[in-house]
């Protein structure tokens, strides 16, 4: 189910606003109804679409009859003030430019198909389905997605072997058990067959036995249903399991359609937040994120030379969440997925690790993480994330760079970029020494850099270069004969260090 707060936040981008409310924003909404003027049967529901209501009084009267918590009606420009008992919990006004058919599709999708658990996204009707199947079979049921992450499980807990307990706690099949199922050919069977399969006990991984069946839409595998049992199911129980696969597939298709709608709304809000609009705080609130310091994570994904398929998959995983936990909000912009995430560098890196783990092994993921930023500074944070992403592309084998820790590398990268786009000095000590090294095979530029980094200590410079300190002294004297070093001038030393750093591709 969803809450009134969620309904208000999502519908706000469609031209619907909350005009009056006497109930908490946390009020749960379970169903949607439309007033039927020509029917004697009463319609009952939490959300009433007052299509055709000529006045506020009429819309409220319909809502009272339907026992509705919230009524949606056209804005009639009437003043709204309830001094006493209103009979309805909340009134939302619909912009005249928005058609009822479009609004109805959104509201039905949100309330009936886009249901959520208390801790995040997840189709709660699957839990009812799992309970129904468990009652029919007489054993515990778990419903997984195609990655073996838990979507729902039954209240019926017997048999609750260690594998079931760990799977539910981790919200996914443990990695060791997954590897065992892969080796035993279970996952291959689910990928290629619609027939239920008995999985014998595996004491090493705490499994007492399972019956499993694939959930499929056409040829696409969408998930699987698992029933705890010590021997193969037969008769009515086996038929119930086989039939459940079709029912679960319908639920997942409806849930996917609703998720696509929410992805679009979420993506638009994230993009606007990253553009630095004055109402960024309102947008972040509508996204359900805290109005505190956030980080921007920039992600790119590819399989070999193909970026499109991998990027779309990464966006789907980022917006679907891992299990039921979804701490961030994401948008796909060009060739990059941007995610707003609260927390520190460790939390951001865990998020990237979780995203990588949810993708196929052949997908390469690159990421950059901004510093913590106030809501008003998210545009600047996006630029930091892009720069960190560029750093990760240069060293993909390292951990994703975080701006807090990598600001110095980013500064040097900016200098290198500036030196490539502008005209680098072709005169002066560094330019003279570069030409000499190229012509005579000397190592004067490296020696100058080591001497500057060692703050003029020949011994330390020698250690950096792997030569004796006297060799450093000799080279410094020869360099002074080639060009005017003026090493006693602090400003010139700083300029030489900057020029060396800007020209250093390492």
TrEMBL record:
Residues of the signal peptide: none
All copies of domain PucR C-terminal helix-turn-helix, residue ranges: 445-502
Pfam families in UniProt: HTH_30
Cited InterPro entries: CdaR-like_regulators (IPR051448), PucR_C-HTH_dom (IPR025736), PucR_C-HTH_sf (IPR042070)
Domain of life: Bacteria
PANTHER family: CARBOHYDRATE DIACID REGULATOR, CONSERVED PROTEIN
Protein name, as recorded: PucR family transcriptional regulator
